[in-house]
Amino acid sequence: MALKSKAKGGATAPAATEKPAAAQLKKPEFLERVIARTDVKKRDAKPAIETALAVLGEALAAGEDVNLPPLGKLRVVRSKDLEGGAQVMTLKLRTQKDATRAAQSGLAATDDGD
Question: In angstroms, how far is CA 18 from the centroid of its own chain?
Fold first, then answer.
């Protein structure tokens, strides 16, 4: 739905553009993409990936900064506890310029020159 506002003199301003809904990567598709880039079987990869995601969530919930190249550095900017045990966190993600290229290749850059 486009929004219109009245400009001075009764004329209407051009409609404001709306952002398209962002695509959402859900866990099943995430698992499939990871498995497609590796030679690991789904039954072996799924528990490891789910555990890694749980550890990531726990670290962020504890207020730790998380530095995971090529993803980048994550830190909690704000956190709010909700009723029912839920928690809302606002995160800041800082990535490297070449992170996209490294992520597409499926390889992380190494620091030891290999």
Answer: 22
Query: What is the reported pLDDT for 12?
Result: 54
What's the pLDDT at 112? Answer: 46
Is the pTM above the cut of 0.90? no
Task: Note the pLDDT of residue 97.
Answer: 81
The secondary structure of the chain as a DSSP string is --B--BPTTSPBPPPBPPPPPPP---HHHHHHHHHHTSS--HHHHHHHHHHHHHHHHHHHHTT--EEETTTEEEEEEEEEE-GGG-EEEEEEEE--TTHHHHHHHT----SS--
